[in-house]
Design goal:
Strand 5 and strand 6 form a beta hairpin. By secondary structure, the protein is α+β, with helices and mostly antiparallel strands. Helix content is about 20%, strand content about 35%. The longest helix is centred in the middle third of the chain and has 11 residues. The protein has a 6-stranded antiparallel sheet. It contains 3 helices and 6 strands.
Length: about 130
């Protein structure tokens, strides 16, 4: 992809959870993302919600940071996540990706954040 999108590092820390069942989502604070399939129910939310959801969590991966792709993105664009993921894969940084209607989010573990930012900047991604 020739024109790389701008990226923004979000301030909050996030957790990724597999939930046992649905819950009352209106009490969640900050940003969150819910995905449901016939096999699982997953929730990505700000870490400030840990105590609120502890009774419905089956499994968790804690301490992620989110890099937001500046949007809104047109659905005709291709290769955005592939490009970012390839840079991070080359740097051996694992990712978790979440997408919304307008944009994409690439989450990296807090412990890998510094190397992720260095790799993306070396690959000419600009942070705003």
């Amino acid at each position: 992809m020739e024109n790389k999108p701008h990226l923004k590092l979000l301030d909050a820390q996030f957790d990724v959870h597999r939930l046992l069942s649905t819950m009352d989502l209106e009490d969640l604070q900050g940003s969150w993302f819910l995905s449901s399939t016939d096999e699982e129910l997953s929730l990505v939310c700000e870490a400030i919600n840990r105590d609120l959801i502890k009774d419905t969590v089956q499994k968790s991966e804690l301490n992620w940071r989110a890099i937001k792709v500046a949007g809104p993105l047109d659905f005709s664009l291709t290769g955005i996540i592939a490009g970012i993921s390839q840079v991070l894969a080359n740097a051996e940084v694992p990712v978790f990706v979440a997408s919304t209607f307008d944009t994409d989010y690439v989450l990296v573990k807090e412990r890998n954040l510094a190397e992720a930012l260095v790799a993306l900047k070396k690959a000419s991604y600009v942070f705003v």
